[in-house]
Amino acid sequence: MTDLIALDRTAVQESLRVLRAARDTDWERPSPCAGWTLRDLVAHMAAQHHGFAAAARGAGADRTYWIAPDLGRDPLKVYEESVRHVLAAFTEEGSGEGTEVAVMERGFTLPEIGATFTGRIAVGFHFLDYVVHSWDVATTLGVGLDLPQPVVEAALDIARRVPKDPERRGPGAAFAPVLPTSEDASPLEETLALLGRSAGAAPEFHTGPSKH
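Now predict its structure.
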């Protein structure tokens, strides 16, 4: 993982690319995240971008940055703005609290986890999330995912280090329990399984009334 920020940028941009395939009738489709439609998932993704951007600038403890935005009538536009925000925050230097220190060495306060981490660890969390969320969106929409091999291999390396003990998995936790994989599983398939997702599973597609 020679440049984690570059890997993260690739994963985030892929999440945006696959999301651009969404049509107006797609936002209420169920996603692989139990109980979440595509709209719910994207609102969460946008909130995480804003929260991590705030953390990179020294303001991560303020929970208002982590609140899911109202996607309104143009969810893609709201998500695009959150992408611009986090990618800028991860690369900017010299303006704002804490930015005199290189991004990877800053302290990122992540209130959802209840701790402060170095930028290297925090950006790793963000990167892994957006490899997986890119898959979530692609699976919801039934479109192909295009992540370079170095990206999925780096994601697998991080996923293997995510704690697997039961008290950190399941309802209310960040990840579901680990699922088994075959010996010939691809790096992406193993990454998904380590985080409780099955690469062979797809949500039932349907169009229903908006919940928002």
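The beta strands are 107-110, 115-118.
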